[in-house]
Amino acid sequence: MQKAFEVTIEGTVQGVGFRPFLARLANSLGLSGSVENRENGVRLVLFCQEDELESFLDRLEKDRPAPARITALNVLRIGLSGNGQKGFSIMSSRKEGTNTALIPPDIAACDKCVEEMLSPGNRRYQYPFISCAECGPRFSLTAALPYDRDKTSMKDFKQCGHCLEEYAVLDNRRYHAQTNCCDECGPNYELVESKTGKKCHGDPIERTIQAIADGEIVALKGIGGFSLVCKPDSRSCERLRSLKERPQKPFALMARDVDAVKGFAHVDDFEQEVLISSARPIVLLRMKCPKWKDAVAPGLDRIGVMLPYMGIHYLLLRRFPVLVVTSGNVSGEMLCATDEEAQTRLRTFCDYFLLHDRDIVNRCDDSLVKVVEGKKVFLRKSRGYVPEQVRIPAMSNKTVLATGADMKGSFGFSRDGVFIGSQYLGNLAYRMNQDQFREMIVRYERLFDTRAAAVVSDAHPGYFSRFLGQEYAERMGIPQYLLQHHLAHIYSVMAERGLFECIGIAFDGTGYGSDSQVWGGEFFEIRSGSSIRFARLRYVPMPGGEISARYPSLMAGSYLRDSGLPVDDKTRLMCEHAPALTSSAGRLFDAVAAVLGVCDVNTYEGEAAMKLEALSQPSGERLPWDLDTTKDIWEIDLREMIRHLSERRRKDAVSHLASAFHNALAEVVLQTCLCKAERSNLRVACLSGGVFQNKLLLERCIELLADNGFSVYFNERVSPNDEGIALGQAYWYELRM
Questions:
Q1: What is the pLDDT of residues 255-272, one digit of tens each?
Q2: What is the number of domains present in the chain?
Q3: Residue 262 covered by a domain
Q4: Residue 83: per-residue pLDDT
Q5: pLDDT at residue number 147
Q6: Above 80 in pLDDT, residue 348?
Q7: Selection from 127, 726, 136, 100 nearest residue 383 by Cα
Q8: For residue 691, what is the DSSP state?
Q9: Residue at which a domain ends, from 64, 90, 116
């Protein structure tokens, strides 16, 4: 007699072709039963013997769909009889409890779908919305769980007879594929003139290709929002820069394939692995010297490159080996996601809109990563990676909303030892981004059946994220806790590794300190939920306050004056009347870049630091500096280093001095940690903050610390910039409990 087993599987198992896979697997083994989507994943019932169940589970582990992630699998013998049960069926989804299942991130078009789309004679030939059970948009079009077509923006498109037939056939790749469609029943594109709003006649994709070839700019509606597309030549790029008022900021590129990328950039094995992954992020790669280098990335040695991830990209790239594909947004705002937003906000940036008629439910910008020490470091975590669970040690049984920070808006909920963070939501100084922030919190509450019992926010009194956290806490009648910005950075690294104590090094651009000054070059001793700030970069005035982040020349004047070097009267007066002092490593980079004549004005965030890193050539020199351990908070004094740089800038190569500066800052990290380790026996170092997006500095710090017996950790699951703050806030709350 057959036995009955219930198998519950949790993780990313909805929207990745998992139920069709289970049905085919059971069918191939001659097993009867059923599977259904549930609030916690999938529930499977099998009628079989123990050895057959063992074979089934072994095959499941080996052959599961590539995008699937299993976090828990439980088997229970149940008292049902399988006698008379024939075949295996996919049941309607059910929800009886709290949603803990994950929607998968958006998945790049698979090779089989691309091959079909590019094959004349196939019924989906040149159809850009092609997908199957294992690929295509997921998070960006899902409004609720369990994951079914009627809970996505595909609900507006009823499948035609041909598609329904595919959907019902067990051996078809589109069996139970919720995004299944074709040009008869699915979304379609139309090309619209930006100035007149008139629809263009003829094939919209061919017309788009011709427009790009003619040097025009097209705003393309994709999976998670709009992109601005043009050729990477100087004429097109200069025009886009002028229209978008983006004089220096680099543009991202999309290349036809890896071979095309290798024509203009260096790609190691792991970088290639990240490039071709189903997430298809933008990957920062070291450039060779393409003729369009200065047009696309002026003053830099690296370029952001991605491969196509949806049908329309492949169709456009048949004509062009590489295109500029940059975010379709007004500077500082999130990218546009509706036709109305795009036609209002992007109209002056482009010549045409390539629009489609499927709604984008959850907007997602392209993710941006760099590879450091063979590991991914996120500069922007969004499409292809969100939502994702980060498991953290659970100390409380409460659900926590962490509202993050403002410069790189991102929030997250933690529950039962799992943190689920939002996508990148832009600078929260902008009203549009604030509205999206609020909307996405409500969306996450609905998607994951969660309500917070506590809120953790940044301590900065002027941050929108703090205000929103207070608003949420008052509405829900729950407590709000405040955590200092740079501590949250360090706790984010600790969360990823489940650490309880460390020496934390937070190098950042800005952050409100507990003494009301602007921090950003801080060293902490952290033990569980308690911390001591034991060292910092020497305070210097911030001339003009936050405006000094825009003008590195102001910070250069402040550092020169502090180092006893002559400055003009205006600089002296601005320093004497500066509204705040700062220990920021970000402002230090600005100052050094200006002192060396590399950059006087930041036309985009981090420009001076990025150009300083790009100029650096290998050098063993370390510039002088001093550590004063006699003070309550140790002071890292860089005045002699500044004097050296100022005196030598006209006789030594800037590339040599830039490298020596990076060496000196890495030595600062090492020696300060060594002094602390002698007093505390702590040999664990955690590095975080936006300055550690600098690959050169991060690698040198890792090497020095590791060579001196430290276990070294940095952010891998969230960004070291302010996007990662929410994870740190959530983990601090858990440790505090």
A1: 999 999 999 999 999 999
A2: 4
A3: yes
A4: 58
A5: 86
A6: yes
A7: 136
A8: G
A9: 90
